[in-house]
Each structure stands twice: as C-alpha cells, then as structure tokens.
Amino acid sequence: MPQEDQYSSWVGLIYVFNLIVGTGALTLPAAFQNAGWLFSSIALIVLCFVSFLTVTFVIESVACANATIQWRKIKEHKVDESEVPLNPDSESENSNEETAILANRRRQYYHLNKKVELGEIAALFLSRTGHVLFFASLCIYLFCDLTIYVAASGKTIVNLSCKSSNNTENFTESCWEDSGVTRMDMYRIYVALFGLFVGPFTYFNVQKTKYLQIFTISVRWIAFSIMLSLAVFRLATYGQQGRPSLVNIAEVPALAGSSIYSFMCHHSLPGLIAPISNKQGLMSKISMDFSVICGFYLLISLTVSFAFETIDVLYSLNFMPTHDSGFLMKLIGMFLAVFPLFPMATSFPIIAITMQGNLKHLFFEPYGIERHGFFMKRLLFPSLAIFPPIITALITHDLKGLVEITGSYIGVIVQYVIPAFLVWSARRQTVKYFGISAHKYSSPFRHFGWFVFVLVWSVVCIVFVTVDLIINHS
Which ranges carry the Amino acid transporter transmembrane domain (predicted)? Predict the structure, then answer.
C-alpha cells in the first residue's frame, strides 16, 4: 500500500471508534433505561466482549486471506516461494539468520497489509451456497441500516419543525396549530425530501475523505460531550429524575438490538486496518478501543437513565429547546437535535454504494457474470440500494422496532455468525496449505470452544428475543 495512503495506529483506532460510535449510540440510552440499569450494564459488558471476540475472528480471517492469495500466486509460479520477502511487520523467531525455516517463512505470509474485504474472504473460503448467504445477509443488514438512517432523519426534522410535543412518538398530532397537517404527513414529506436530495449521490462514486472523517468525529464528540455534561448538570441541579428498575425483561429485545447495533464495525473493519502503518499489537489496541467505547456507553447511559424521567428513542431529541429555554440553551438544544443529520446524510450514499456493490456480487458473481451494461451498473443497482429503504421508512416511523429487528436478528448474523464461519473455514483451508495452526494475527480465542460459544450465543440471542417479542405482543 502506498505510504501516502497509510496512517498511524492511533489514527486507525480513531477511525474504528468513529465507525462504531454512530447512530446506534443515540438509540442505546432509551433501551438501557427501559431494560433496567443493572441488567443493562451487565448485558452491555457481555455484548461488548462477544463483539470484540468476533472482531479478532475478522482480523485473523483477513490475515488468512492474504496468506492464501500469496500461496496461490506461488502455486501458479507467479512468485518463487524462496524469493518471497518477509513481512516488514513480522517478528521472526530467527531474525539473525539470513534464511528462515520454511515454516517460519510461511508464517510471514499472514499479514494485514493488503486490503481484503469480507466479500473476497467469503469467496476464498466459503462454498457457493455460503457465499450467496453471506452477501444476502450483508445486503439485508445494509438495507436495514439505510432504513434506520432515513427514518431517524425524518423523525429528527419533524421534531425540529413541528410544534413541541410531550410525546415525540405520537405522529397523529397536528404539526402546527389548526393546520390539519399531522406529524406523520410531515414525516413522510421529509423522508421523501431526504431521498430526493441525498439519494442521487448514490449514482456517483462518493467516498468519505480523511477530512470528512475528522470533521464528523469532531462534531460527534462535541455533541456527545455536551449531552453528557448537560445530563450531569441536570443530576446535580434537580437530583434524580429517572427511576429505572434493576431488571425489566420485557425490554430485552430493544436492549439487545440497540447494543448489538451500537458495537457493529465488522463489515467495514478490513478497509480500516489495512492502511495502518504499524500493526504490532493491533488486537490489544483494538481491545482498548472496545473498552473505552463500552465505558463511554455505560457513562452516557447511566447518567441519562437517572437524569431524565423518560428518554426519547433518539436520545439527542431529549435536548430539544422549549419556549421557556434561554437563548444559549435554545442554541445548544438546536445543535444537539440537528447534529445526527450530518453524519446520517453523509454516510447514507456511502453505505448505499457499498450495498449496490454487494448486490452485484449476490446476483452476478455466483453465475460467473463479470460485465454488465450501463443500465445495470449506473441505474438499476443504485436504485435498488436507495428506493427500498426510503419506501420502508415511508411506511413506518417505528425507529425502536427497526433497531430491534436490525440488531437482534440480522445484526447477530453479521456480527457473530459470519465472522465465526469465516475464521473456521479460513483455518481449515490455510492449515491444508501451510501446515501452520497459529500465526501472529491468530485470534487469542483460537480454541474450537470459542467458535461453538459464538454460535450458541447467537442462537440464544435470537431465540430469547423472539420469545420475548411474542410474549409482549400476544
């Protein structure tokens, strides 16, 4: 990778942090309060650990993919194995010897310097059926993700433009006094406008630049810092307003969905770790990232759970200014209410472009079709990426339900099941090639029992959430 495209490990960790702490973090506090502060705290820590566990599976899978690509080049006689240079990041056990033992040399094939996306890894290690299921799962997740972005944006603009309401979930109220236009009418108009103004960028090659990343991170951190400070101030000034229970099993689906959604980074991780210049101790550094994020989520969720009697599904709307707010508080409240719109609007076309790429893989690659015309490439697939989420958002404004379904079902598959099967298949394949069972990017959770644990945990999550949803809606 060219040196100008690389960045330090700390910049890479900031990018990973920014990828994880997104819209999901705004939906977490309400679910946390409703499910009970003690149960939610324990559940959040456990879910953070399982998410990190499967992140190490993704990293190991990327290293195995790079090793496999290198090995296939050797077998095709494009590269002489004896001339393959050692990986500059490697820690050779025989660094003082000019020629390493073959096993040690092959161990150096495992690296993270080449960007290998999850789709490529799936193509390398999974069967055709597994390959199709992988892309189908990823497309469904991205569809749900885009729908959440559209619905959250529409809801935010409704609350900014319509009269103040004690219940932001009541969309049957009129938007303005004696107008005859309901909040639901305006919500659908705003969703359509969002699609009209943001959707067209999907038809072009839009990329998130380093400067846009830095700006997004800055705005997000300023907003979260203000929200945390205001919650602490509210606690210190007015005392405890919220009375969350210790445990409320009825709200587990919402907590599971929000928590899993709030730790999601697996589908985009390979593209972020490849440009990191120094990958020594990468897993330890990412574990620090997850620890900080988990602590941050706990700090935010616990303070607001006791500071507010009720929390909006989109937490930033709790700071909407009221008629008796001072000028400064109105300004701050308006900023906090508006800030989610920017990252959602800038991320929507990028996620949609990712989705159309996965749709092409899903419909063409299994059948060996490599070329498709202008209509397919520039019109059909971009339209398939943006119209279904917009239509779904027009039908429902239930942000809580969308997050529940996305996190509790398809999120479990993308975050837990896919990484587990990828690393299991990658290990089997690379052991056949190299006869090596461990390397420097091996997950610390290499034992087969961890693979079984992730699958059992996934089944437990889905069954538990499903049973709870049935009981609550029966």
Answer: 8-60
Based on the number of CB atoms within 10 Å of its own CB, is 118 exposed (0-12), middle (13-18) or buried (19 or more)?
buried
Residue, of 374 and 64, whose pLDDT is higher: 64
Report DSSP letters for 14-49, one per residue.
HHHHHHHSSHHHHHHHHHHHHT-HHHHHHHHHHHHH
Q: Percent helix, strand, coil in the chain (nearest 5)?
A: 70, 0, 25
- Over residues 226-265, the pLDDT tens digits come to 999 999 999 999 888 989 999 998 888 888 888 998 999 8
State the sign of the Cα–Cα–Cα–Cα dihedral 46, 52, 54, 57: negative
Q: CA-CA distance, 50 to 59, in Å (whole number)? A: 15
Query: Model's pTM, two decimal places?
Result: 0.84
pLDDT of residue 418: 94
Instruction: In whole angstroms, give the CA distance from residue 457 to residue 463.
Output: 10
Cα separation, 143 vs 149, in Å, equals 10
Cα distance between residue 169 and residue 184, in whole Å: 10
CB 110 within 8 A of CB 391: no
> What does the CA dihedral 27, 295, 445, 31 come to, rounded to 10 degrees?
-20
- Give the chain's radius of gyration (CA, Å): 24
pLDDT on residue 96: 47
In this prediction, residues 3-17 reach a mean pLDDT of: 79
The span from the CA of 214 to the CA of 11, in Å, is 10
Q: How much is the average pLDDT of 167-192? A: 85
CA distances from residue 198 to 148, 244, 335 in whole angstroms, order as listed: 15, 39, 21
The token pair at 393 is 């958002």
| DSSP letter, residue 94 | T
* Residues 160-179 pLDDT 10s: 888 776 666 778 888 887 77
| 23: nearest Cα among 258, 299, 356 | 258
Amino acid identity, position 215:
F
Count Cα atoms within 13 angstroms, Cβ side, for 440: 21
Domain map (residue ranges) of the chain? 9-80+95-473
Class of 9-80+95-473 per CATH? mainly alpha
**pLDDT > 70 in the chain, percent:** 87
- Using CA atoms, how far residue 267 sits from 55, 142, 241, in Å, is 10, 10, 39
